[in-house]
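thread: overnight batch results

M.L. [08:02]
morning all. the overnight job finished for the chain we discussed friday. pasting input first so we're all looking at the same thing
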Amino acid sequence: MAKEKLKRIAVIVRPCSGKSTFAINLGKILNIPVCHLDKYVFDGKTKRDMQEFLSIKQAFIDEESWIIEGCSFSTLEMRLARADVLIYCDLPAWLCIGRLFKRLFSFDKKILETGCLKGINWALIKYIWNFDRDKRGNIEKLCKKYPEV
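M.L. [08:03]
and the structure it wrote out:
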């Protein structure tokens, strides 16, 4: 696909996989604005109301060009309905869990600011470990529904 046709890109990868860094670098290469969903799920320290989150996300989706990265499957179809490309990377769970610990214990503020990570809990580790098994079927269904993506 030609560079000029890449205007709307959805990036979905397991948490702590490096998707924010990947999206930032891709945005620079393609000169496309990047939206990090994790930054909009929370309003400060509290989880944002779902309707408010959907409104913010819809505003990004309505733009002419974007790279939207995040693990939000509840809103993935909104992205795919307008996306030109879906980038789904199947990184190993053990690697992402290792990055989770690295991020938590890092003294580099940039690493901590890339997501909404405030700590480690068993639910997050389980989510990362089971991400591909639990989500791959949803991705495949949506790819069949939007074969042009």
